[in-house]
Amino acid sequence: MTGQEPAGAADPSAGDQKELRRAVVSGAVHSTEMEGGRVSAAAAADLDSYVDGALSAEELVVRVKERLYAAGVPRPVVGD
Fold first, then answer.
1. At what angle do helices 14-34 and 41-52 cross, to 10 degrees?
2. In this structure, what are the phi and psi dihedrals at residue 71, rounded to the nearest 5 degrees?
3. Which residues contact 51 (CB under 8 A, 6 or more apart)?
4. Is residue 46 in some structural domain?
5. Using CA atoms in the order 37, 43, 46, 50, what is the torsion angle rounded to 10 degrees?
C-alpha cells in the first residue's frame, strides 16, 4: 500500500492496518483531550472513516484542514 488508497478486504493485512489506524487515532484523540481540546462529531466521523479504511490519511488531513479554515482558523502563510 502506498498510503494513498484505503485498505480493502482483499488486502491480507487489512486487519492489522485497521488496528494500527485505530491505535493512532486513539492516541491523537487522547492527546487532544489531555490538552483541553475536544473532537467534534464531524471530526469523529471522519476519524472513524479513516480507521475503517474509507479515507486515506491524506484525505483525512484535507477534511480536517477544510473544517478548520471554515471555522476561521487562519491558513498558514507560505514564503514570499
1. 160
2. -85, 0
3. 18, 21, 22, 25
4. yes
5. -10
**pLDDT digits 0-9 by tens, 7-51:** 555 555 788 999 999 999 999 999 999 999 999 999 999 999 999
Residue 3 CB-density burial (10 A; 0-12 exposed, 13-18 middle, 19+ buried): exposed
Domain coverage including residue 37: 15-70
Per-residue cell: 11: 488486502
7 lies in a domain?
A: no
* pTM of the model as a whole: 0.75
Assigned domain for 9 exists: no
